[in-house]
Design brief:
The protein has five helices and five strands, in the order αααββαβββα. The protein has 170 residues and is α+β, with helices and mostly antiparallel strands. The radius of gyration is 34 Å and the shape is elongated.
């Protein structure tokens, strides 16, 4: 051992270096044949997971663009969003992210108190009104529909929106 480098064993270092520079005496290992012959053309892409099964809720949410188009044509809606009973935004084509919290708060408070949220109308600007309309279905659950329209909707129009939310013919 060297007194200057007590952690280094010179004989061991020399032995390792000689083994590294010595020519390999063994032949290269051969890869065993796996059983494929010349007729093998390759593997095919097989989908390992089955296609997802759409739930009734997924089918309902898939129809939301059609509902939005109906609101645009019927009431000149500038934006539409949908909040579920947990307060989560499940559909949004409104660019009104800052106003989601109102619908979210209404849905969460109604869940806590066990009551149905009420219709809320908020004047956003001189030419925009946000209508927050609760809609309830035994199969889909409770939702809050947010619609940005140029003028406030009358009671008949609000009822028409509620009926159209779950109507697949909207």
């Amino acid at each position: 051992m060297n007194a200057l480098n007590p952690w280094l064993d010179a004989d061991e270092v020399r032995s390792v270096s000689q083994r590294l520079i010595a020519p390999a005496t063994e032949a290269a290992a051969t890869i065993p044949e796996v059983g494929f012959d010349d007729t093998f053309v390759g593997f095919t892409d097989v989908e390992s997971t089955p296609p997802p099964i759409l739930t009734e809720r997924d089918a309902f949410l898939a129809l939301m663009p059609k509902f939005r188009d109906w609101l645009v044509s019927k009431f000149s809606a500038k934006g539409v969003f949908l909040v579920d009973q947990e307060g989560d935004v499940v559909f949004d084509e409104s660019r009104l992210n800052r106003l989601h919290f109102i619908a979210n708060s209404l849905m969460i408070s109604s869940k806590i108190t066990g009551t149905c949220p009420s219709h809320v109308r908020i004047k956003i600007s001189s030419d925009s009104v946000l209508e927050l309309i609760p809609a309830d279905s035994s199969t889909q659950g409770k939702f809050m529909v947010g619609v940005l329209v140029p003028q406030a909707l009358n009671l008949e129009s609000v009822q028409e929106v509620v009926a159209a939310v779950f109507n697949r013919q909207a």
